[in-house]
């Protein structure tokens, strides 16, 4: 009855848990197909799956990686309250990692083997030695984990309150030390059954050793006493029976049974005098196997009594591994705990006030302005990941090349090859320096409370699309409990969904052009977005007649501003869309900065400034004939030139303001200590 009830419990657990082995194959199906809902398609356009895999790689166990990726793919279904709990869990795990370090390394756990042990025992089978030792490793790890967590919680009351919700269940879990000792008394570290498991097992193994020794002596004597011209090369084992390998074709000095033969491999002969000993050895080995099975069977009964508790330990360990993966990812990329708030609508006016507690580790404060989004120095997570991986790979190559040169010098090997290695090493060091200089450029997102639609303009390859993806991924990361890869402080709203229309949406299967594909996606987004949604539109109104595209783009953005989203970010080349700010207070302009001296974008965003055209100036710097340049300026008209000049002045004033602000902040850092010292006097 006990085994039956435990089996039913396990089946129930497997049906609810994502950690069942048969569910491993189904994990990729969690990623939404490109033809599914607008929100699911948006996740694919933002490359959310790559972020999921990157975070999951920080989990130490196979089940932890699977559970992490599955949880991240479920970002669409996470409520605001759940998002807050996830962020609190991640913050607690970051605190634990800071105090314990290596104690939270789950990579030594074999959760797959533990689960196999649970299934084996619950199904009425006898547990294997390696499965039993995997259970021991789990129980000892949990015991060590409990000690580490309790030590961290005793540091101060804040740590206790922060860690308790995350670790309460695993702290209450019971580790049966008696069962651990029973397994260790019977099973060796390599999973084999110990001689001390039972007196019978020891006796039978000694009998096997004695018979094997006698057989070896007999075979050795037969080989040495053989006076035939046959080549008796060695003693071999065939199907567990001791025999002699013969490669010649002459007669033997002893009678034997032919077990196998081959022209190249020779013949395997079992001497007649060895048959009784071989038979006895086979019987002794059977007795050993039976004694080992008896010992494992008794051990299985003991594990069965603790099976429910072992299941709890496994599930809680996987859960903690999953949370720790989020924390390790956030630490590895120097993330910031976001101030995630739920907008409150009062009398049709949005209130972005939040009661979310500021992290104790953060001393940064938001500038005194009602911000809807405030993310300074935000990095695109995939670009930052790629940069760090490339840098890590090249540094590893440098270390290997340095070690090889040192080895060659020690052993005095070819100098010419050493010179080539030294040249390669210098080249790799230059690549390291270049990569360190070409660090991904962060983007500032500082959107005022009154803004509903932000229009970003600027040249191609200037970073507009990357900026859209960065804020979209940051919103998803905060919602699912990840730190945002930005500087402190970070304030961001909770979005019920993130919708994106980015890139080429041409559909050959549905005979849709690029323009039609975009319209279909935007139409679906407009139908499903709410006043709590984030909408990202790349090159809105593009792909058709410029006048019609601009008119359609203006109408779409006004629709989203009125009731289609909590925040819409749109990039465009249509100058008409920049004018919406001057007729609607819900709109704001921004542009990507362009370095006219070097004719390349700086990838910085200038807020509150509409983008200006650089095409004619670029053409002039590239050496296009002057008459063509002047004709183009004439066709553009004086009004367009005056607008560009005005925008240029605004950009200049903005740059001067930023420089003066940085200087003021720098001076404040030195003034504050002086004030403290004077007041103390």
UniProtKB/TrEMBL annotation:
One of its GO terms (biological process) is negative regulation of DNA recombination. SMART domains: MUTSac. Keywords: ATP-binding, Coiled coil, DNA-binding, Hydrolase, Nucleotide-binding, RNA-binding, rRNA-binding. Signal peptide: none annotated. Residues 384-438 form a coiled coil. Transmembrane segments: none annotated. It holds the Pfam family MutS_V. SUPFAM superfamilies: DNA repair protein MutS, domain III, P-loop containing nucleoside triphosphate hydrolases. Residues 533-549 form the DNA mismatch repair proteins mutS family domain. It comes from the Eukaryota. GO terms for molecular function: ATP binding; ATP hydrolysis activity; ATP-dependent DNA damage sensor activity; endonuclease activity; mismatched DNA binding; rRNA binding. InterPro entries: DNA_mismatch_repair_MutS_C, DNA_mismatch_repair_MutS_sf, MutS, MutS2, P-loop_NTPase. This is DNA mismatch repair proteins mutS family domain-containing protein. It comes from Brachypodium distachyon (Purple false brome). The lineage of its organism: Eukaryota, Viridiplantae, Streptophyta, Embryophyta, Tracheophyta. The gene is LOC100829925.
């Amino acid at each position: 009855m006990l085994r039956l009830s435990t089996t039913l419990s396990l089946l129930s657990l497997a049906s609810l848990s994502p950690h069942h082995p048969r569910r491993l194959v189904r994990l990729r199906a969690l990623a939404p197909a490109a033809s599914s809902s607008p929100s699911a398609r948006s996740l694919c356009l933002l490359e959310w799956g790559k972020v999921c895999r990157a975070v999951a790689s920080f989990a130490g166990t196979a089940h932890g990686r699977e559970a992490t990726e599955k949880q991240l793919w479920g970002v669409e279904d996470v409520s605001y309250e759940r998002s807050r709990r996830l962020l609190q869990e991640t913050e607690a795990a970051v605190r634990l990692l800071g105090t314990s370090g290596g104690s939270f390394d789950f990579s030594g756990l074999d959760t797959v083997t533990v689960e196999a042990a649970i299934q084996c025992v619950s199904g009425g089978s006898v547990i294997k030695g390696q499965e039993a030792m995997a259970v021991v490793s789990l129980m000892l790890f949990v015991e060590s984990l409990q000690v580490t967590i309790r030590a961290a919680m005793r540091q101060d009351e804040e740590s206790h309150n922060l860690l308790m919700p995350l670790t309460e269940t695993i702290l209450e879990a019971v580790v049966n030390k008696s069962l651990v000792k029973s397994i260790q008394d019977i099973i060796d570290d390599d999973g084999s059954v110990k001689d001390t498991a039972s007196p019978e097992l020891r006796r039978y193994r000694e009998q096997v050793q004695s018979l094997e020794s006698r057989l070896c002596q007999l075979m050795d004597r037969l080989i040495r006493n053989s006076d035939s011209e046959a080549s008796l090369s060695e003693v071999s084992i065939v199907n567990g029976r001791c025999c002699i390998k013969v490669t010649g074709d002459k007669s033997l000095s002893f009678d034997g049974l032919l077990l196998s033969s081959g022209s190249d491999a020779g013949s395997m002969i079992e001497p007649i005098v060895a048959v009784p000993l071989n038979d006895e050895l086979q019987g002794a080995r059977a007795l050993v196997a039976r004694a080992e099975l008896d010992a494992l069977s008794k051990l299985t009964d003991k594990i069965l009594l603790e099976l429910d508790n072992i299941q709890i330990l496994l599930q809680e360990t996987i859960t903690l591994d999953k949370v720790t993966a989020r924390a390790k990812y956030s630490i590895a990329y120097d993330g910031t705990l976001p101030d995630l708030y739920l907008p409150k609508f009062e009398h049709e006016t949005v209130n972005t006030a939040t009661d979310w507690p500021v992290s104790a580790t953060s001393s940064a404060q938001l500038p005194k302005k009602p911000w809807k989004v405030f993310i300074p120095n935000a990095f695109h997570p995939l670009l930052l990941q790629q940069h760090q991986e490339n840098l890590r790979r090249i540094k590893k190559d440098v270390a290997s090349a340095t070690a090889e040169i040192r080895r060659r010098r020690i052993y005095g090997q070819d100098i010419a090859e050493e010179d080539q290695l030294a040249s390669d090493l210098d080249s790799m060091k230059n690549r390291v320096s270049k990569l360190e200089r070409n660090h991904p450029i962060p983007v500032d997102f500082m959107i005022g409370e009154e803004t509903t639609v932000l229009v970003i303009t600027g040249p191609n390859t200037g970073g507009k699309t990357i900026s859209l993806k960065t804020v979209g991924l940051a919103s998803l990361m905060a919602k699912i409990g990840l730190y945002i890869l930005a500087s402190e402080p970070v304030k961001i709203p909770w979005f019920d969904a993130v919708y994106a229309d980015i890139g080429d949406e041409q559909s050959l299967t549905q005979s849709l052009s690029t323009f039609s594909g975009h319209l279909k996606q935007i139409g679906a987004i407009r139908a499903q977005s709410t006043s709590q949604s984030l909408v990202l539109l790349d090159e809105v109104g593009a792909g058709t007649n410029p006048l019609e595209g601009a008119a359609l783009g203006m109408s779409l953005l006004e629709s989203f501003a009125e009731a289609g989203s909590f925040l819409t970010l749109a990039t465009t080349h249509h100058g008409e869309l920049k004018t919406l700010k001057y007729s609607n207070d819900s709109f704001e302009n921004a542009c990507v900065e362009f370095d006219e001296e070097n004719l390349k974008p700086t990838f910085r965003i200038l807020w509150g400034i509409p983008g200006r055209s650089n095409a004619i100036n670029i053409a002039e710097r590239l050496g296009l004939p002057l008459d063509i340049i002047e004709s183009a300026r004439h066709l553009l008209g004086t009004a367009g030139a005056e607008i560009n000049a005005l925008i240029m002045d605004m950009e200049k004033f903005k740059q001067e303001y930023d420089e003066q602000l940085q200087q003021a902040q720098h001076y404040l850092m030195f003034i504050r200590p002086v004030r403290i010292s004077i007041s103390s006097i």
